[in-house]
Design goal:
single chain, 17 helices, 2-enoyl-CoA Hydratase, Chain A, domain 1, six-stranded mixed β-sheet, alpha+beta, Pdz3 Domain
């Protein structure tokens, strides 16, 4: 059954990639956003993120931090946990959901989080007056029908309350770890729990307008490292350079702090200031840089007229403003009467479902764009919208292993309608649809797979991908030499 009030997302590999979708264009040349690479391994080895914040939600994502051992209201703390369980039972693509599996996953998530800090539950001695698992379950308002299933979990939680963690973890951290474990137990890589920090970063790539310092960064190094400042940004005005390492923020040492946490320290409203302590290879000693944050717009589309009078449009993501940006670019380029169009969706990891329909409709005059198929066998059909700007021009679409989800919807529809040839490598193969409801008490979001989608010819591409009509591999040597064989083949097809 179709869930209610859906914020539908189509993105590949969940948070880790969504948070990094709008990065690396500065140095990637013709394969902008190249951190996706040609394989999933390359994506995970080279994530990055942007120093910006969607202003609509930034105030709502301030989360509490309650030290272990302090007084805590378990009913309030676990409200989003039980809320997530209900959402899983209502909306998850595969039903029925086994609560015993969820309970085991929650226990695994809790114990793993503790063991990561060297805390082993069987080594913790409980005082005589420690609350029993039954008492903790009641205090947390565990639903009666699953009380027995969560007995082991609450026994573990009771021991965790007496762990000597020295402020390294909070009760919120432990609840998040338990919730993440419960969700992971479903065995679906695209169904995920995003804590408040992760949610904030995941929204960045899809909003298009941010408040921050405007810099591309790498989160995989020992310290957060500047890839490049954006043109005209506060980061550029402050003189930040590629390779700069962020050692401290407002005097607080960032040693050992995860990249996403560092980014959240840099986030803030336009007009506010921060001081970053920078380590630069060419400078003997670290130095401070004061930066005033500003509102920043990051385009998800770029285009130009190539030699031979061929229009070239590259779409980096399917964000909230991508459809309008694409239409503006198409109007500008089509006014120059191009002989053909190359639409580049390489390394585009997806975005919003609605945006994918609007993008496809610029090139397809009528007919089905996709079918959404739910776990109970029911379907919803999405058809092309009217008034597309480029429904007649001859076109070629560039795709590769980083083209995923919403990109595959558009590419699959164009291929099935014989509207365009696909050129490049086999696409990623992400054919599922997620909703992303916010959890109560600013505790993040639950991203749930609620359906799979099919192309107009009813092809299932999940785990398979789309096979290009013309396969053109792009080697590391090509990239290093600046040789875009895929783009060159597309040009040949439009000029032969």
């Amino acid at each position: 059954m179709k869930p209610r009030n859906r914020n539908i997302l189509l993105v590949a590999l969940g948070f880790a990639l969504v948070a990094a979708m709008c990065v690396c264009a500065a140095s990637a040349g013709f394969i902008a956003y190249s951190f996706f690479g040609d394989t999933v391994t390359n994506i995970l080895e080279d994530p990055a993120a942007i120093f910006d914040s969607p202003p609509v939600t930034s105030d709502s994502l301030v989360e509490p931090h309650t030290p272990i051992g302090a007084d805590v209201d378990l009913a309030s703390l676990f409200s989003p946990f039980w809320e997530s369980r209900v959402l899983i039972h209502e909306d998850f693509y595969v039903q029925p959901v086994d609560d015993a599996l969820l309970a085991q996953g929650a226990l695994q998530g809790l114990t793993t989080a503790l063991e990561d800090f060297g805390i082993y539950l069987d080594e913790i001695n409980l005082p005589a007056d420690a609350a029993s698992p039954k008492e903790l379950a009641a205090e947390a308002e565990t639903p009666t029908e699953i009380m027995a299933l969560f007995t082991d979990f609450w026994a573990a939680w009771g021991r965790a309350e007496y762990a000597d963690i020295e402020n390294q973890l909070t009760y919120e951290d432990l609840m998040h770890a338990s919730l993440r474990g419960m969700v992971n137990a479903l065995g679906d890589e695209h169904t995920q729990f995003l804590d408040p920090s992760q949610l904030r970063l995941s929204e960045i790539s899809l909003q298009g307008e941010y408040e921050g310092i405007g810099a591309w960064v790498d989160t995989t190094t020992e310290y957060l490292t500047i890839i490049a400042p954006m043109e005209g940004s506060p980061a550029e005005a402050a003189g930040l350079q590629p390779g700069d390492r962020v050692l401290a923020i407002d005097g607080d040492d960032m040693t050992g702090i995860p990249g996403d946490a560092v980014i959240n320290r840099i986030l803030g409203p336009a007009g506010s200031t921060l001081v970053m302590t920078i380590d630069r290879e060419s400078v003997a000693q670290p130095f401070d840089v004061e930066i005033t944050r500003a509102a920043i717009f990051v385009s998800s589309v770029q285009g130009e007229i190539l030699e031979g009078n061929i229009a070239y449009v590259q779409l980096f993501s399917f964000g909230a403003t991508s459809d309008r940006e694409l239409r503006n670019i198409l109007e500008e380029l089509l006014a120059q009467n191009p002989s053909g169009l190359i639409f580049d969706m390489r390394n585009n990891g997806g975005g919003f479902l609605d945006t994918s329909i609007q993008v496809a409709s610029e090139f397809i005059g009528d007919g089905v764009i996709l079918f959404e198929q739910f776990g109970d066998g029911t379907r919803q059909t999405y058809e092309a919208l009217a008034d597309g700007l480029a429904t007649q021009i001859e076109m070629v679409v560039l795709v590769n292993g980083g083209s995923a989800s919403a990109s595959e919807i558009v590419a699959g529809a164009l291929q099935d309608h014989s509207r365009a040839l696909l050129v490049g490598d086999t696409t990623f193969g992400k054919g599922s649809v997620q909703v992303s409801p916010l959890l109560s008490d600013n505790q993040g979001s639950l991203r749930i797979t609620i359906a799979h989608w099919l192309t107009p010819d009813e092809r299932e591409i999940h785990g398979i991908g789309l096979q290009p009509d013309v396969i053109v591999p792009l080697t590391e040597e090509d990239i290093a030499a600046g040789n875009d064989a895929q783009l060159q083949r597309a040009i040949e097809l439009l000029t032969q």
